[in-house]
TrEMBL record:
Protein name: DNA gyrase inhibitor YacG
Role according to the record: Inhibits all the catalytic activities of DNA gyrase by preventing its interaction with DNA. Acts by binding directly to the C-terminal domain of GyrB, which probably disrupts DNA binding by the gyrase.
BP GO terms, sorted: regulation of DNA-templated transcription
Keyword annotations of the record: Metal-binding, Zinc
Family: Belongs to the DNA gyrase inhibitor YacG family.
UniProt-annotated stretches for the region Disordered: 1-23
Biological classification of the source: Bacteria, Pseudomonadati, Pseudomonadota, Alphaproteobacteria, Hyphomicrobiales
Cofactor(s) of this protein: Zn(2+)
Domain of life: Bacteria
Entry's cofactor comment: Binds 1 zinc ion.
Subunit organization: Interacts with GyrB.
Length: 71
């Protein structure tokens, strides 16, 4: 018997089973994120994050500007 005969003769292999996707934790409160507010758990946590960006609580690190580059 050929090796492919055990799968019905089609030669195709069984597809791998997908692992269930776990909801990632909300970066603000740690609750599971919802699809509607992803990556947050709610509109409230989205607004809290936006407020942190707008108020300057979050900062993106950057190298200090070198003023000698113009010369």
């Amino acid at each position: 018997m050929p090796p492919d005969a055990s799968d019905g003769g089609s030669g195709a292999t069984k597809p791998a089973k997908a692992k269930p996707v776990r909801a990632k934790a909300c970066p603000i409160c740690g609750k599971p994120a919802t699809e509607a507010s992803r990556p947050f758990c709610s509109e409230r946590c989205r607004d809290v994050d936006l407020n942190r960006w707008l108020s300057g609580s979050y900062k993106i690190p950057a190298a200090p500007a070198d003023d000698d580059e113009d010369n």
